[in-house]
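Subgroup meeting minutes
Present: P.N., E.W., G.H.
Scribe: E.W.

1. P.N. recapped why we're keeping a running log of single-chain structure predictions: easier to compare across weeks, and new members can see raw inputs and outputs side by side.
2. G.H. added today's entry (442 aa).
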Amino acid sequence: YRYQHAGMMSCAGNRWLKTPALDALASSGVRFERAYCGNPVCIPSRFSMMTGTLPSRIGMDSNKRASLPVTDAILRNSLGHVFRRAGYRTVYGGKVHLPGTRGKGVGAYGFDVITADEREGLAEACEEFFGQDHQQPFLLVASFINPHDICYMAIDAWTKAKDKPAMYPKSNRERQCLAESLKLPEGISREGFLAELCPPVPENFEIPENEPAAARDTDWREFRQYVQDNWSAQDWRLHRWAYARLTERVDALIGRVLDALHRTGLDKNTTVVFTSDHGDMDSAHRLEHKSMPYQEATNVPLVVSGAGVAAKGHVDQDHLVSTGLDLIPTLCDFAGIESPSELAGHSVKPLTNSAAPRHPWRGELVVENEGSRVLVTERHKYAVYDHGESREMLVDLKSDPGEMRNLAVEAEYAGLLAQHRRRLRRWYEENNENFDEKYIVT
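Output recorded in log:
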């Protein structure tokens, strides 16, 4: 998946959309509410999931550095190669978006391609694959594009208003899907639609009073400023409506894949993991798009279901999971494969076998972003930017889940702020990663 944040499932309490396929998956497995991507941008995040390392390992923190090389040592321990060495057939369908492929595409990461289609064709390819005679165990990655098409709403609003040539002019299918998702239901007036069906703006719609100025330098393309300055509350609400419809659209495709898995009987010994490379800001803080340290961009859905999962229907609200670091160790654990010792992540399988309140686990995790580093702890979230006079943000996620109050500027929290500075730096040291000095604040 792409662009789906953790709250975009009806099983997560979102009443503005229906995701029956994901709801069913969650009811037969464990849903992790505190899962975070390695980086809230697609290429770095996907690299992290496929290699079990943070993207800064190769000097990457944005899509702009997609041409960076990836070492043979990292590729050797990538997801596909680890499973191939264990005798698995490894196949991949849909969006790739990975660095260091050296002209081999996703084959550089140990996969054969079943289709490059990112939409209905991917669902069809998965159905066909499940129907084959499987003489060996398999690992299948199905990488659907939506709800990514939502990004064109702001982009096209800006180009139209400024009378500029269309960005991504060949993206006709994307724009068609977005237009279909923006259609209002039949049989209801626009007034009735806005009053009853269209999501309201979120509670954290406004910009935090003491937000670091550098926050809006990150991937700050002109269309982001345009919609912030010019969109009405109704425009933002329509954006949320379309985002929900695009999410429902891809949920239906996921349903087809899961139905095929069940029809062929392969579900009896198959573990299914669902996640997203990052989220969309979904109107929070007058933002759409990705590449922000806020929850809507970094907190992603994670559901683990199927064979080997005992705590069916459990919702884990406690354990901090890094989809970038923990995916390979988790899949290896379920498959009975030894995870590469070089990887720093942890398997979540022990967390799926009991509904106990807490399991011994990490107390913090790191999310990287272009020009910023983020530390999420048991209760708080700390972000530091690489420039600016006031370049830190500290929030209490328990009392302020919408991230509207920046404790970093309040004198009474100076000790807590200093503690999080130390913990961020220590995390990099303990995990043998390089912590760039530009993120050190004294």
